[in-house]
Amino acid sequence: MRTRLAAVGALLSLTAAAHAQSIADVSAQLRDKALAGSPAFPILESLTTEIGPRPAGSPAQKRAMEWGLAKLTALGFQNVHAEPFTVTAWVRGPEAAEVVAPFPQKLAILGLGGSVPTPKEGIEAEIVLFHTYADLLAAPVGSLAGKIAVVTQPMVRTQTGEGYGAINPVRTSGPSEAARRGAIAYLHRSLSTAENRLPHTGALRYAPDAPKIPAAALSVADAELLDHMAARGQPIRIRLSLDSHTVPNAPAWNIVGEATGREKPDEVIVIGGHLDSWDPGTGAIDDGAGVSITTGAAKLINDLPRHPRRTVRVVMFGSEEMGGAGEAYAARHKDEVAKIVLAGESDEGPGPVWSVQYPKGALATPAMKAMSGVLAPLKVYVGFTPATNSGSDVEGLQILGVPVIDLHPDATRYFDIHHSADDTLDKVDPKALDQSTAAWAALIYAAAESDIDFRAIAK
Ligand SMILES: [Zn+2]
Question: What secondary structure letter does DSSP report for 347?
């Protein structure tokens, strides 16, 4: 009996190994097809050329929604549709800043998303300059009364993008921290690793218990200019003028298309990027790249003569920068969530991808283990530690228990461009985009063709 059981066990693991190998073979074919010229770059070229900047709630975002539906339909996806929700749209108006004393000159700035406007005549006040965010936090309450607070801490360049995560509070929380200490406006050095004079915008988050003050990002060059002026010890006066308005209950959409599963169509893998972008550039790297990589990967899978067992669903999320799309998606799909077996978002640029993290436990499964060999020619390795997040648009699903996969694009140069007027198509290397698409297509196919219960193995 024991020998028979052992024999059956050996046969089963042999079958599992053969199954894993047949999955890896198709994944390798998808990889090579993507490397030879994936659908991603033409999708990105189309989006940036035909739509351009597309902030959530703007008329351009409505055109982007129509573009997304038409594109997914033309690419041959099934179940193409838009899922509406609403956002508070923030609309930038004219902006200007200048040093009025002691050395008058103009400053390159961009208002932060969500910032309140200054009074029509602008704000003119003395600045208090902090070289680090910690210095601002150490300033006593009331010490900035009537002043413009300026933080000039530089961002650290990293391959992982961790430098951005580390300095993010300077932009998101800085305005309220300054307001708590009495400041009447807030400027900070752009969260940027660039050496040019373009400011980088991004959303702020006002704390409910602090006054809302106008806030803007200085270009790196202008932050350093203020550092030099401050070193002279004389009071510095700045005039700041920011105009903007908000549109409550503006329409937004998550755009969906599917490669329907051949055996278990109700088991779904959700992948995507965000369709909205900031206004100064055309949103090529943030996040046209993620939209085109995941759509391109899903297209390659959809074109297979035999679809994988599970459904691959691509989602173009409609409001990441100012928030709302991920929450809307999770709320709408909460009853389906047990059937969403895996989720992943591409939102850190065109790549190339250099590593991937699986959900906890997945590395030990034959199908995912076999992927290490498929990814090796792409110079992608599989990390030993499990994925802890993937992108803010799938966080809502993650909170509801959906496991995530995290592909890491090389972010070394991403923050030179991110959220600035320089975020345009010419910065994207089509070869990097194809490599990223290859990695996504290979991995998502493997997950969709396998019967791995990513939730169960994580326990
Ligand atoms: Zn993004």
Answer: -
Residues lying with their CB under 5 A of ligand 1, a single-atom ion:
286-287, 347
Q: How far, rounded to the nearest angstrom, does the alpha carbon of residue 325 sit from its chain's CA centroid?
A: 12
Q: What is the pTM of this model?
A: 0.96
CA of 250 to the centre of ligand 1 (A): 20
Q: What is the CA(44)–ligand 1 centre distance, in A?
A: 14
459 contact partners, CB below 8 Å, separation of at least 6: 361
The pLDDT tens digits of the residues spanning 385-394 come to 999 999 999 9
Residue of 320, 321, 345, 348 marked catalytic: 320
| Start-end of CATH 3.50.30.30 domains in the chain | 103-235
The CATH number of 103-235 is 3.50.30.30
Q: How far is the CA of 274 from the centre of ligand 1 (A)?
A: 7
What is the location of CATH 3.40.630.10 in the chain?
A: 25-88+249-457
Please give the helix or strand (H or E) that residue 269 lies within, else none.
strand 264-274
**Catalytic residue list contains 320:** yes
Domain covering 25-88+249-457 assigned CATH 3.40.630.10 in the classification: yes
Average pLDDT, consecutive stretches of 10 residues, N- to C-terminus, the chain (459 residues): 68 82 97 98 98 97 98 98 98 98 98 98 98 98 98 97 96 98 98 97 98 98 98 98 98 98 98 98 98 98 98 98 97 98 98 98 96 98 96 97 98 97 98 98 98 93
189 touches 220 (CB < 8 A): yes
